[in-house]
Specification:
Chain lengths: ~600, ~350
């Protein structure tokens, strides 16, 4: 029989022959009832007036599709989250030397923000991508590192609302490389934050690869922007903080990314709970990397053997954003990674022996993402029930897909996963408010309680569009879960307390989190740890394991408050939930 | 005539009628007319009996006596097609479409002759012409769609099948084909609707639930997928794909032990199904049965030595058993295979090579 096209029972043969095809399509279900988590877009009401520019609308070049760093940070230490938005540029503007600027918005504590960019004094701009937040000089004020198409900029927070470009002095210029995500973390536990920068591809702006010109410039047979395959990868950098305002590039010494993968997402985290920060880097179209901290100042790359380099079937994925949380409360931090469309997002369950297993399928987290191209990802307990939920910002990289019946679209809705507390998630995005039903070209994503009302809010950047400040409306009165927020202040450890592991036991539930700002895609989130406590009005026991090795233990802390915990001193300040004078948006009735 | 030539059943009946209507009156010379009529009769009887070679010989002689007769050409072409003499069918068809360029049937049959002769590029314009000349002929759209499906031109196949289901809305198989075309052009939601329609029209449609389940799984709707696939995975089912897809979806959704059962059944039905052995190994590993997993993965590798994923999985299985040397060896083979495989696009999807 002719196996290619037998003339016997033509239709039946075709039917069976089609079994191995990998289909893709736009799949959405519409839940019948409103979800227990509701968001409202309050961007305009909050006074955020920002348009993310990232090349032309056709996205003829790869860098035009990847902008969108956002940050929740408290730059003025007033206890209220402010907002930083990185902006891109266009090829034309770049060639003309025009310098776009970033935006800094100060939280006015009434649900609105004031544009304080001018006062911030960002003297140098760039075609920006990511933003990392951390107090690198331990002066009590969070600083900013902005990654650019041609290097990066370290802005030292002067503590008076202004910033100073200290890139050259600090030695963190990133050598003109195209940086994407960056993250501060103290890998050597010396009390000073080090800086990792994921770099993407080497790009010659004078000789940009021609749209649609090769197999690497096609998506399902249609011409699109080129890359990253076919382009030379740019090696990531790790800068060690010398403790004197300068950094040393230790990339060579520590054999960081010697093959030059296409880096996009960065996450510091103590995944083996040995008190030393490990590092996970999501790479595009190449294996992702897991650096295990050996504790002797060295990092060993273990991604493949740990099971987090590839998909569960050993295939490269287009890794974009990363985040970590102990989603099943087994005491071990797990990993989430977003990927390209036609692929599942990963939920790498930490097996506790240095290995992970992708349980995205069983958890209801992976397969549903197949039609979506994921970028930002954040875990946060959005309904205060004690279990970390997750949001994924989606949007394709090729606007050309809209002209074809591929089953994927350029603009896509985000995916909102509610943790069911049994190892599984339910995707409830379509019933969580109109804002989450909108299709946008989502990129950066940060989480933080900007109005300090005890509900974690979200900030999403959208390509060639306004960002979305998504206010978490919380549960109706009387049904809201309790919560506890913890801000860490290191003394022996780094001032931000990045890397501190906090365990909270309330009733029968013990949960843990690790202090960090930088994760997701290009973004930085509220470093304060937020724990939903459900019906528990008291946290029975709180243990803070500091990177220095010190431990602080607290007992019987009431819920619904923020605790500022200083290393070695315990609680130094308590903040009751505020009564906002004028919330930016109406609460759902 | 056997079922394998079902495609030509209807045209054959039409042909017999046409030959009958020819009649002797058409022929100028009574002797010639009588000879031709006799040859036509012989040819028709041979066609009926399934002796296509004899039919072809009779119609060749009739054609020699009356070379410009359209229906004799038609009968001759039919004989060649049924006898799988596609080269002669093409030759006759080319001549026919030159003589009678507005006859949609010749274009249709010539297209199918090309197609059967593995000349899809030549088949498509003939079938397109037939569709243009006979836009209401459901068979033409159907056959053009089948060629497109074979050529993996799924959007075009869907376009034709949409016409087919408009013209013939109650044929379940047409909806299945349209569903597959949608599925393979990434329109899974539409595919789901077509598969549902097919099952409404014919609840016992073979593999109907399989297709619907496959479509659900492709958009991550595993629960609905499993509900459909479970209906196919019956003791009477003999199609290994039904068990493979059921097992695969069970595996993806974390029901590892049940996945093992389904995948074992798939491998019993298809002992050379490397993907089924791969999934079986993966399911066994996740279910904590590493030793059995190793055996299944080794079988998958034996069946498909180029499957890098199987080495990756085997490495993890061996490592879980403490066989570090074996794990490293499998991982080295995995890495080597990956390096030898070509990237398929600008960005990886994690499904590039499956």
């Amino acid at each position: 029989m002719n196996s290619r096209f037998p003339n016997a029972g033509l239709a039946a043969v075709l039917l069976t022959a089609a079994l191995a095809v990998l289909p893709l399509a736009w799949g959405q279900r519409k839940p019948a009832r409103p979800a227990p988590i509701q968001f409202q877009d309050v961007t305009r009401a909050a006074g955020i007036d920002f348009h993310l520019t990232c090349g032309g609308p056709e996205k003829r070049y790869i860098m035009e599709s990847l902008c969108g760093g956002v940050a929740f940070l408290d730059y003025d230490n007033d206890g209220w989250l402010d907002i930083f938005l990185a902006n891109g540029s266009t090829v034309g503007d770049l060639q003309r030397g025009a310098q776009p600027n970033f935006k800094l918005y100060r939280n006015r504590r009434d649900g609105r923000f004031a544009d304080v960019t001018a006062k911030a004094g960002f003297t140098r701009g760039c075609w920006a991508f990511g933003v990392a937040v951390g107090d690198y000089d331990n002066d009590g004020f969070d600083d900013l590192y902005v990654t650019c198409l041609d290097g990066g900029i370290l802005y030292r927070n002067n503590g008076n609302g202004s910033f100073t470009d200290v890139t050259a002095k600090a030695g963190v210029s990133n050598g003109g490389r195209w940086g994407t995500s960056a993250a501060f973390g103290d890998y050597d536990n010396d009390g000073f934050l080090d800086l990792y920068i994921a770099n993407y591809v080497e790009l010659d702006l004078e000789h940009l690869p021609v749209f649609g010109s090769s197999v690497f410039c096609q998506y399902r047979g249609i011409p699109v922007s080129c890359g990253p395959r076919g382009l030379k990868g740019s090696r990531d950098r790790l800068y060690r903080n010398n403790g004197d305002g300068t950094f040393s590039d230790v990339s060579e010494a520590l054999r960081i990314d010697p093959e030059g993968h296409y880096g996009l997402g960065v996450l510091w985290g103590d995944f083996d709970l040995d008190g030393k920060l490990d590092l996970y880097v999501a790479n595009d179209s190449t294996p992702s990397l897991l650096y295990r901290n050996q504790g002797d100042g060295k990092l060993q790359e273990t991604g493949v053997t740990a099971g987090v380099a590839y998909s569960a079937d050993g295939r490269e994925q287009a890794g974009m954003g990363v985040d970590s949380a102990d989603y099943d409360h087994d005491g071990l931090p797990d990993l989430a990674k977003t990927n390209f469309s036609d692929d599942s997002n990963n939920l790498y369950h930490n097996d506790g022996k240095g290995t992970f297993t992708d349980l995205g399928g069983p958890a209801g987290f992976g397969p549903i993402s197949i039609p979506f191209l994921g970028f930002g990802v954040k875990f946060a307990d959005l309904d205060n029930d004690g279990w970390p939920d997750a949001l994924v910002a989606n949007g394709h990289v090729n606007p050309q897909v809209d002209g074809h019946a591929f089953g994927v679209s350029y603009a896509e809705r985000p995916l909102l996963f509610r943790n069911l507390g049994n190892g599984k998630f339910a995707e409830i995005g379509q019933s969580a408010g109109a804002a989450l039903r909108l299709r946008k070209v989502g990129r950066g994503l940060a989480a933080g309680d900007f109005d300090n009302d005890g509900n974690v809010d979200l900030l999403v950047s959208n390509l060639d569009d306004s960002p979305q400040l998504l206010r978490n409306l919380g549960a109706p009165r009387g049904k809201a879960g309790h919560w506890l927020r913890i801000k860490t202040v290191g003394t022996r450890s780094n001032r931000d307390g990045f890397g501190a592991r906090v365990q909270v036991t309330a009733g029968s539930l013990t949960q843990a989190g690790e202090v960090r700002a930088n994760s997701s895609y290009l973004s930085a989130s509220d470093p304060r740890l937020h724990f939903g406590l459900g019906t528990a009005a008291v946290a029975d026991r709180i243990v803070i394991h500091w990177p220095s090795g010190a431990t602080d233990t607290l007992q019987n802390e009431k819920s619904d408050q923020e605790l500022v915990v200083e290393e070695g001193l315990g609680v130094v300040r308590r903040s009751a939930p505020p009564t906002p004078a004028r919330p930016a948006g109406p609460r759902q009735k | 005539m056997t079922a394998r030539f079902q495609f030509f059943l209807v045209p054959a009946r039409r042909l017999r009628l046409a030959l009958l209507l020819l009649g002797v009156s058409l022929w100028a010379s009574p002797q010639t007319a009588s000879d031709v009529q006799a040859l036509i009769s012989q040819g028709s009887q041979a066609l009926e009996a399934g002796d296509f070679a004899q039919a072809a010989r009779s119609f060749e002689k009739a054609n020699a006596l009356k070379p410009a007769n359209r229906e004799i050409h038609r009968a001759l072409m039919m004989s060649y097609l049924q006898g799988e003499n596609f080269v002669q069918a093409i030759s006759t068809g080319v001549e026919a479409v030159q003589r009678w360029p507005r006859d949609p049937e010749f274009h249709h049959w010539l297209g199918m002759a090309y197609f059967q002769n593995r000349e899809a590029a030549a088949a498509i314009p003939q079938l397109q012409k037939a569709a243009q000349l006979a836009p209401q002929d459901v068979d033409v759209h159907h056959d053009l769609a089948l060629v497109y499906l074979d050529q993996q031109q799924y959007p075009r196949a869907a376009e034709q099948l949409e016409k087919v289901v408009r013209l013939r809305p109650r044929a379940a198989l047409d909806h299945v084909l349209l569903g597959r075309a949608y599925q393979n052009s990434n329109r899974s939601l539409r595919a789901i609707e077509e598969f549902k329609t097919a099952l409404r029209l014919e609840p016992a449609l073979p593999l109907g639930h399989y297709h619907l389940g496959f479509a659900y799984a492709s958009v991550g709707r595993d629960d609905e997928a499993l509900a459909e696939l479970r209906q196919e995975a019956t003791p009477a089912q003999t199609n290994p794909e039904a068990f493979y897809q059921f097992g695969h979806t069970l595996l993806e959704s974390g029901q590892w032990q049940e996945a093992v059962t389904a995948l074992r059944r798939a491998t019993q039905l298809a002992p050379d199904h490397s993907d089924a052995y791969y999934d079986l190994g993966k399911a066994l590993l996740l279910a904590g049965q590493a030793e059995d997993a190793i055996a299944a993965l080794q079988r998958a590798i034996q069946l498909n030595p180029q499957d890098a994923s199987a080495y990756y999985q085997l490495s993890r299985a061996l490592a879980s058993q403490g066989d570090q040397a074996g794990a490293e060896q499998a991982m080295a083979r995995f890495e080597a295979l990956k390096k030898s495989q070509q990237a398929t696009g600008g960005m990886a999807t994690g499904r590039d090579r499956k």
